[in-house]
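[job 0412] stage=fold_complex status=start
inputs:
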Amino acid sequence: MNAEIRPVKTAAEIGLADLFASARQHLPGGSETKALRLGAFDSFVAQGLPHSRVEAWRYTDLRRLVRDAKPLPAPPDLAAATAAGNAGALFAGLGFRRLLIVDGAFIPELSDLADLEAGISIRSTAHLLAADEPILSFGPGSAGGDPAVVLNAAFAADGVVIRIDANVVLERPIHLAYVTASATPSAMFTQSRLQVGSGARVTLVETHEGPDQSDYQVNTALQLVVGDEARLDHVKTTDEGGAALHVATLLVEVGARANYRAFGFTTGGSVVRNQLFTTLAGEGADVQIRQASLLAGRQHADTTLAIDHAAAGSQSREIFKAVVDDEARAVFQGKITVQPGAQKTDARMMARALLLSDDAVANCKPELEIFADDVQCGHGTTTGALDDQLKFYLMARGIPAKEAEALLIQAFVGEVIDAIERDDLREALSLAMTGWLKARG
Amino acid sequence: MTALLDIRGLKAEIDGRQILNGLDLTVGKGEIHAIMGPNGAGKSTLSYVLSGKPGYEITGGEVYLNGEDLLAMAPDERAAKGLFLAFQYPLEIPGVATLTFLRTALNAQRKKRGEEELSSPDVLKRVRELAKQLSIDPEMLKRPLNVGFSGGEKKRNETLQMALLEPKLCVLDETDSGLDIDALRIVADGVNRLRAADRGMVVITHYQRLLDYIVPDIVHVLAAGRIVKTGGKELALELEATGYAQYQSEAA
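[job 0412] stage=fold_complex status=done
writing structure:
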């Protein structure tokens, strides 16, 4: 006899079920969207919150880390929205086109929507959902059934949907500034999408932040579709408040001879999960993903990456760096899959962690799954402490211990920041890194 | 008058192994002292203990720099007080540009001494002048510190740092190792330019060759962790002829 063993539901899972029951009639969407929400939530109920026995979530056990479900936020009032006007200050003054998402709601009145370039359209996710137009689409991979993704699909309320027409070259970066303004801890679910037409060139900047005092929860999904021969540069900073939960799903599809260049910078949030599902869908697609996580206190930041080489002659490079202080934990899971037809794939992945204290932890798990026979794939990981010899050399020249450490940390992270091509972005992120080091004392 | 460097009965060990065994040495301002000795005598240990490298345990003795207790200071404080160690094997630091390193070091020292920090252009100007004197390609200054530098380039870079930081006491640890004769001449010229009435130098070397270029006032023989003989510069030539064997047996 097979007895089906159902784990006891956690308080958070029970809370989410209650929340869905009460909220589902009020979430945006016509009958189709409502049906999709129901299906998504059923899928969530069947799996529950992911835990350590789910391989993809092995190091980030949400059953343990999420204690309760938070209410959905009230629509931000003008005061909250105005208070959020400072969002994305790291990139202030650079002339980016900032689109403001406050407490999970897109605020067109406070977004830079004037003087839109020809060939660009910006719409709200809530409007599209209301018209039963789905925001996200899923390929054959596992992303569609991921517990964070189905939860997002069940509750998604708003976000931004951007379309760039073919061959449009946008000089002005688009900045999605997500901010939690509400002092009441709540749960924000957003869905956004950027479609870059073939041959177009765009820079997308994403910032996520919120107050330190509130244990709010963010579950955000973003889909990026990079058309053939297009180029998308993407920078994401995760700088949530000190008690926040941030779960982000990034779905990327890269077309033939298209370029996708990503840089992720994680400094804030109590529990952060950045999961990236990237498909190199067209021949000769070229992907470079770099990331730096700077963690302290009891922060937990997980980056989980699935790179799917589905077309011949595609190339990917991934470099992940984590600086981990105090009792923080950095997690990196990276899986490169090469599909049967994807001959001449060239894929390399590297994860390096620098531990600054005895209690800091780094978990690295790289994987390769190769179904083609003419490919070049490699991966590696290293974990270590600051080099005492180098530190002594710097100190022997008069540089105090903390400053010497800062120089060495900067050098460690510098490799990924220096690769950012745009000067303004690179300088802003260098400043953010310096700021983190200064705060370290 | 207070000596520039005053080492009294210094004993030090690493991993429980005694290396310095009651070493006495006094260096006055304006003097160049050479310390010669066989391998394993404690030459490098002396340089590391003076500069405060972690891992060495001081089990006895005292060291004063201009009358101040050197052993009580952290390595960066010793540097700010005017101690400079030219490393036998300068380290490579990927990701730290040479110029950034030089500026950070200079200004950290100035700050600690209560002097005004120098602007980046001012530092650059000084560094460029010194680089020219030492035949250092200015392009090298943009490269990560010592990464991919040849042995000669690394030693010239050490000399550049020494000239920029203007220390009171220079300790040169086997500066001649890994240098061909041309590089040796350039480095020695750089060191000789730093000879000054208020500056002392301790030149640690195994071979006499270096002392043809950096001519010492006083030569010491270090064996088994102690100074066993002191003489004039002719002592170096004598050692070249006779070797260290007699001192090793004497010390043992």
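[job 0412] summary: Chain B touches chain A at residues 51-54, 74-76, 78-80, 85, 87, 90-91, 93-96, 100-101, 104-106, 108-109, 112, 144, 161, 165 (CB under 8 Å).
[job 0412] exit 0
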